[in-house]
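Title: Comparing notes on inverse folding

I've been comparing how different people in this forum approach sequence design from structure. To keep things fair, I'm posting one structure and asking everyone to reply with a full sequence. Here's the target:
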């Protein structure tokens, strides 16, 4: 089931690539070390071991399914991205890796005639005796409400970039899975860690479009509006430092120069190389009047990846019997406090496969077949109009200002109190926008409450009132409804 069309998802937008230790000089051990080091002390070591060990096999699966990874001299081409010690990023269609993977896999789904319900929004997890027994859905085309029985429910609802005013995520990324699972009683972990991508295209009236990490990996230089390269002044890793460090350096540089952007400069690269290596980004910039071969590209940070999520073990099992979660909605612990670039597509594959294995092992539902699964189909009566409601943009502005790249106790307290008030006055949702707003409010509360609790700065979570990392906080924050 998916709430929009099958290809309306974050996956389709992934650009740079997918990490796996398949290079001759590389090894799962090195990939493990890089992932642990990026995670700032909070990675789950067992989960990272599984991620990095199983990566080459999952890449082989993708090749078998037909994903056309880019090659060089007959071998799969590998590039390097920030905080990876080796070139180990596979890409497809240049910078269209996600689109190539998504198109190939949805093609396989069609070929295998797996039934797909599009425009079908999951709104509630149904429980019986503490275990999952089904899911309630809302048909966004007809307004009908349906219930489906199941023994195993796998949430793969993606991220929540729509919490913020500036985001690289599409409209569908509204934290639905986290809110659904939380309302059903599942454990939610690490929500204070939200990754901001340092470089999204920043042009008035244009959606923030991701300028991939790989652009810096291939020699792109960050310059302030005076044209000065500034990254070396912040860290010896310069442009290849982890995302949180680069994002905060950009914010600081924007503050110093009074500008709302900096530039990424690849004008020193041959035009042919840039156009071939980054065809999607190159064309997008060109469409907006910027030629990467000649012009510096204005960029600013934008919300990018939800590191926390529904807490799962290494088999994707949540704290609720029968509920599994994969991908960005899940918190496997592989990213710790900061995701290493290109590990997220990999996480979906590795743990998605493990969920399939585990749920098959635990048995198929007794009843099967799409018709038998439908329990009811009724239209819900409209609820009484409640108090004037906050809109999505007010929520995005609130969280951008108070729970964004640089946070403080005062701002988080304010945001948290406002969200709690909004949740109180939200009426029973009637359509997709109102369901998504409820999910954003719940997910936003989980994020701000966790960020308020963590009295330190670590990885993607930075507080001006607690700027240091503290060993007292080498632990996770887990929230439940209780
Ligand atoms: C611009 C961009 C570039 C990126 N680049 C990279 C990269 O180079 N490498 C990398 O590893 N990662 C990258 N990422 C991150 C990566 O793409 C995502 O983390 C990953 O694709 C998430 O996959 P997913 O299956 O969990 O979620 P998604 O691909 O987002 O799929 C979630 C699906 O669930 C559906 N859904 C949501 N809520 C409901 C509901 N209530 N009912 C029914 N359906 C629902 C959505 O409509 C969507 O179809 C990038 C992300 C973005 C936005």
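Reply #1:
Here's my take.
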């Amino acid at each position: 089931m998916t709430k929009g069309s099958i290809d309306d998802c974050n996956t389709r937008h992934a650009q740079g690539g997918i990490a796996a230790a398949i290079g001759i000089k590389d090894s799962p051990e090195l990939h493990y070390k890089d992932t642990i080091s990026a995670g700032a002390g909070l990675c789950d070591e067992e989960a990272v071991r599984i991620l990095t060990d199983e990566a080459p096999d999952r890449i082989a699966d993708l090749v078998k399914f037909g994903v056309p990874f880019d090659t060089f001299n007959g071998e799969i081409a590998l590039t390097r991205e920030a905080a990876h010690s080796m070139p180990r990023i596979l890409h497809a269609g240049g910078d269209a890796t996600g689109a190539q993977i998504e198109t190939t896999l949805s093609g396989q789904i069609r070929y295998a005639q797996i039934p797909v319900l599009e425009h079908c929004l999951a709104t509630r997890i149904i429980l019986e005796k503490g275990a999952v027994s089904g899911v309630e859905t809302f048909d966004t085309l007809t307004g009908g409400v349906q219930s489906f029985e199941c023994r195993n429910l796998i949430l793969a609802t993606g991220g929540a970039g729509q919490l913020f005013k500036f985001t690289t995520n599409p409209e569908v990324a509204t934290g639905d899975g986290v809110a659904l699972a939380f309302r059903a009683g599942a454990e939610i972990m690490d929500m204070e860690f939200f990754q901001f991508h340092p470089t999204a295209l920043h042009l008035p009236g244009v959606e923030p479009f991701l300028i991939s990490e790989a652009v810096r990996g291939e020699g792109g230089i960050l310059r302030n509006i005076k044209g000065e390269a500034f990254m070396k002044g912040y860290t010896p890793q310069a442009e290849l430092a982890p995302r949180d460090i680069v994002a905060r350096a950009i914010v600081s540089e924007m503050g110093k120069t009074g500008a709302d952007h900096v530039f990424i400069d690849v004008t020193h690269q041959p035009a042919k190389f840039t156009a071939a290596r980054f065809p999607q980004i190159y064309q997008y910039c060109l469409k907006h009047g910027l030629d990467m071969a000649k012009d510096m590209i204005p960029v600013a940070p934008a919300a990018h990846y939800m590191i926390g999520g529904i807490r799962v073990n290494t088999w994707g099992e949540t704290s609720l019997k029968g509920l599994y979660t994969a991908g960005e909605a899940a918190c496997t612990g592989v990213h710790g406090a900061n995701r290493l670039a290109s590990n997220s597509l990999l996480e979906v594959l590795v743990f998605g496969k493990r969920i399939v294995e585990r749920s098959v092992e635990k048995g198929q539902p007794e009843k099967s077949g799409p018709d038998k699964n439908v329990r009811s189909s009724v239209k819900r009566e409209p609820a009484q109009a409640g108090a004037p409601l906050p809109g999505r943009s007010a929520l995005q502005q609130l969280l951008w200002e108070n729970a964004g790249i640089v946070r403080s106790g005062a701002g988080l307290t304010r945001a948290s109190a406002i969200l709690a008030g909004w949740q109180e006055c939200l009426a029973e949702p009637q359509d997709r926008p109102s369901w998504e707003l409820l999910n954003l409010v719940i997910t936003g509360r989980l994020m701000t409450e966790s960020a308020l609790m963590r009295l330190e700065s670590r990885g993607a979570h930075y507080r001006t009132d607690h700027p240091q990392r503290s060993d007292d906080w080498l632990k996770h924050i887990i929230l439940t409804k209780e």
